[in-house]
Amino acid sequence: MLKKKFKGLLANHIVDLASFHRVFIDRWERKKNPLQILSEYDNIRRTINESVQDYCTRFNSIYNVTPTNIKPPPDLALIKFPDGFDTDMSYQLR
């Protein structure tokens, strides 16, 4: 499917890496309501069998797709991150 998508582009449509990035993101970026993303970010918690690495990846992916105009600053994200763990782990991380 991806091959068909890019073969269907007009000639010289992608002239540099930035153009390729824009076309790729427009096609594959997670499209959600910004308030839904913010809610997902506010309520993120590590699941019972989730590794710390997987939680970090999930936290970062949600944070990174949050629109800039409503994205919390990085310092606040560092404060929010431990909230996703159980009470003891959260305390130790702080």
Structural class: mainly alpha
Which H/E pattern describes the elements? HHHHHH
> Biggest β-sheet: count, sense, barrel?
none
How many β-strand stretches? 0
Describe, in short, the structure shown.
This protein has 94 residues and is mostly helical. The chain is 59% helix and 0% strand. The chain is built from six helices and no strands.
Strand-helix topology:
Layout: H1 2-7, H2 17-28, H3 34-42, H4 52-65, H5 74-80, H6 87-93
Explain what the structure shows.
By secondary structure, the protein is mainly alpha-helical. It has a domain at 34-93. Helices cover 59% and strands 0% of the residues. The chain is built from six helices and no strands. It is elongated. The mean pLDDT is 81.
Which descriptors would you attach to this protein?
single chain, 94 residues, mainly alpha, 59% helix
